[in-house]
Amino acid sequence: MRPMALVLKQPSVLPGFGLTLGFALFYFSLIVLIPLSGLFIKTSTLTWSQFVHTVTEPRALASYRLTFGASFLGALINGFFGSVVAWVLVRYRFPGRSIVDALVDLPFALPTAVAGITLTAIYSSNGWIGQYLEPLGLKIAFTPLGVLVALTFIGLPFVVRTVQPVLQDLDKEVEEAATTLGASRWQTVRAVIMPELWPALLTGMAMAFARSVGEYGSVIFIAGNMPLKSEITPLLIMTKLEQYDYAGATALGVVMLVASFLLVLMINLLQWWSSSRHTAR
Amino acid sequence: MSTEIATTVKNEEWKASLTGESTWVRWTLIALALGYLTLFLFVPLAAVFAEALKNGLESYFAPFQDPDTLVAIRLTFIAAALAVPLNLVFGVAAAWAIAKFEFIGKQLLITIIDIPLAVSPVISGLIYVLLFGAQGWVGPWLIEHDIKIIFALPGIVLATIFVTVPFIARELIPLMQSQGREEEEAAFTLGASGWQTFIHVTLPNIKWSLLYGIILCNARAMGEFGAVSVVSGHIRGLTNTLPLHVEILYNEYNAVGAFAVASLLTLLAIVTLIVKTVIERKSGPAQSAHDPAWSPQPGSPS
């Protein structure tokens, strides 16, 4: 009997545990964990007041407001339209539906730099869409609105792809029962369908938000990048790096990293909620 | 008999009327969805090619005769050719350990594998600059030995590996977990070696997900911009990958050239989506069909 082995790993007849887990841990530590921990070690060369000063200077605060604000608005927009798209794709049949379904993933597959220059071209004052918005007084490219457009694009697939499978699995008989019992269609949607969708919808929005917060490539072309006005936090980190202000860049990096970890935690909880609801039925 | 069929049909119609919306609601929703997708997906997709072909075919192909573009293409392929196989080995190893064995900390491992997807690309590059840059920990030693990592190929490859680490693992882990270990146990007990068991029993069961993971990994490896931008130093014709080359051309006001190179990357994205759709059809909707694979989503909901 080897009590230690029993505690760490349950016995199995299959081979390769040590080799595969060992390699996976070694590789992951080397590529991800050790370099990431370097970020925290580097920050510790700053004193606490230096750190606080760096991460709360007006330029940094303005960049958080824009990054988190635009990401939140983008997630809201995608929450609404993403649900509509998922609903339409699952419930209705129309020509080109399967192509539309496949294209929803485009923001995942398209390199962010390509998205950036393309959105800039379309939404600038002489672009395909921008030229019609400019007379209305709406300037999108090179303003904070441009950041919102880019982040909405980047977050587009998340809500669709989290809500879609839940809608597909939804038991139609419950809806039928609701209608038979006298509920209007709108009442059924609100009281029967929406409660089922909420966990998936919130998960999708949280994912879109998390992705948007860190986004760099698609934003920098369209944003205009004016300090205090249209500068996102990842760009501010980049600027500090280019000025060889490594400590400053690292301090902001730590703030972003902690925000990302909190978001991951939140998404985990949402997914746990989502799946426990699912299995509870 | 016929009345029975008629009643069933009527019954179906009646049921559909219970769960359907009126025609105008239906078309309003479709219009709303397509309008939104047009604004944010279809128009940008068309615009890439329209901008690239604005001045005719000759100027479209001009950037592809530029040696700097060819270097960028080569560099992008090298980075992907190193990142994808390494992450493939990692993905298979991690999935084997997680799916076939019970051990302490397994759930934690599944969660942390997704860290690179949650981290801003700029930070993914920054951590390597802190390690290997001139002011970094290993920096002075590297300079002494004349080894260049940052602003050179190794840095680009490292950053690319970092951002694509989870792609294959996250496709395989949920699938292999759901498949259990009985088949492998049977093969192994009957005398197959571990390797034979993997090749003849496991691999056929996971091949579509594996391929799916590989193409997603490759698309991201070739398209990564932020992380690579931090470590590359943007040395034209030397450390520029294709996405960085797009940026350089664009900033030099060579819009047509930038969009021409961008159209190449867009074609890559379209091919990726096509392969992805085909694999989803082949492997059935149950297998990772609607998994938001590029998402910063941790682990698989069990």
Structure summary:
The complex is a heterodimer of chains A (281) and B (302). Helices cover 78% and strands 0% of the residues of chain A.
Structure, described:
The complex is a heterodimer of chains A (281) and B (302). Chain A is mainly α and 281 residues long. Chain A has 14 helices and no strands. Chain B has helices at 2-19, 23-52, 56-61, 67-100, 106-112, 115-118, 121-132, 139-144, 153-164, 166-179, 182-189, 194-223, 226-232, 242-251, 255-283. Mean pLDDT of chain B is 87; it is low at 286-302. Chains A and B meet through helix 2, helix 4, helix 5, helix 6 and helix 7 of A and helix 1, helix 2, helix 4, helix 5 and helix 6 of B.
Would you identify the regions of chain A where 5 or more consecutive residues have pLDDT less than 50?
A: 1-6
Low-confidence stretches of chain B: 286-302
The helix/strand order of chain B is HHHHHHHHHHHHHHH
Largest sheet of chain A: none
Biggest beta sheet summary of chain B:
none
Strand fraction of chain A equals under 5%
Q: Quote the beta fraction of chain B.
A: under 5%
Can you give the helix content of chain A as a percent range? over 70%
Q: What Rg of chain A is obtained from the alpha carbons, in whole angstroms?
A: 23 Å
Q: How far apart are the first and last residues' alpha carbons of chain A, in Å?
A: 42 Å
Class of secondary structure makeup of chain A: mainly alpha
Mean pLDDT of chain B: 87
Q: Can you give the mean pLDDT of chain A?
A: 90
Q: Structural class of the helices, strands and pairings of chain B?
A: mainly alpha
Number of strands of chain B: 0
**How far is the N terminus from the C terminus of chain B?**
47 Å
Helix content of chain B: over 70%
